[in-house]
Amino acid sequence: MLKLLRATVVIFCCILICIFGSIYSFIRFKNPSNVGIMARWFGRLHPLFGLKVEHRFPDNAEKIGRCIYIGNHQNNYDMVTISYMVMPRTVSVGKKSLIWVPFFGLLYWVTGNILIERENRTKAHGTMNEVARRINDDNLSVWMFPEGTRSRGRGLLPFKTGAFHAAIAAGVPIVPVVCSTTHNKIDLNRWDNGKVICEMLAPIDISGYDKDNVRELAAYCHELMAKRIAELDAEIAQQS
After folding, report:
1. In a 3-state reduction of DSSP, which class is residue 45?
2. Which candidate, 53, 54, 163, 189, has a CA 20 to 30 Å from the CA of 77?
3. Contact assessment for residue 218 and residue 146, using Cβ atoms and an 8 Å cutoff
4. Where is the Phospholipid/glycerol acyltransferase domain (predicted)?
5. What is the chain's mean pLDDT, rounded?
C-alpha cells in the first residue's frame, strides 16, 4: 500500500516538474543554468522515497569554473540523489532517444542538454569535439556518466573515454562526483530507507594528459571514485 501511494505521489510530482519546468525553460530557452535548477527540483523529492540525502560540496565549488563533472550512474534513484549536485551553468550529455520519454523528454531538450546518437560512433566522436567547443564558447560545464549506462548493482563499471577526450580537448579539469550505493537498499514499502551521501571531489588537473594516454586518465578517475564510494558506504554502515 505504501509503495503504491509513493509511486502515485512521485509520478504526480515528476509530471508537475516536467510541465512547469518546460514552461520555465521555454521562457529561458536553453539557458545553461536551467539544467541545474531542474535537477535540484527533482533532488528535493528524496524524502518521498524515505531517504535522507547528505550533499557534500567543497568550499570552492562555485569557483571551479568550466569543467567536466563525472558521476557514478546507479539506477533511477539517481534522479533524487546525485542530480542535486548539478551546478549552475552545467548541462548534461545524453542519448537522443531521451526526447521521446513522455513529459521528461521535452524538459530534457528545452533545458539545453546535449544530445548524442550513441549507436553512431562517428557522430558520437564528433559530439565530444562539439562538447569541448561549447564548454569554452558558451562558458559552461558538462555533466557526464562515463560508465555509459546504469550499473544496477554491478559496482562502478569501466569508464568510456568520451568525457576524458572532451576534457583534454577543452583544456578543463575533471571533477568527480560520487554517490554512495543505493542498489538493493531502497524498499518503497518501508518508511525509512536510510542515508545516502553524495560528494563532489576536488578537481583533477588534466594538463599532463593527451589523447595518447587518455585511458590512464580514465583509469585514475575510476580508481579514485571507486575508493571514495567504498569509503562512503563504510561511513554509512558505521552510522547505522
Report:
1. coil
2. 163
3. yes
4. 67-182
5. 92
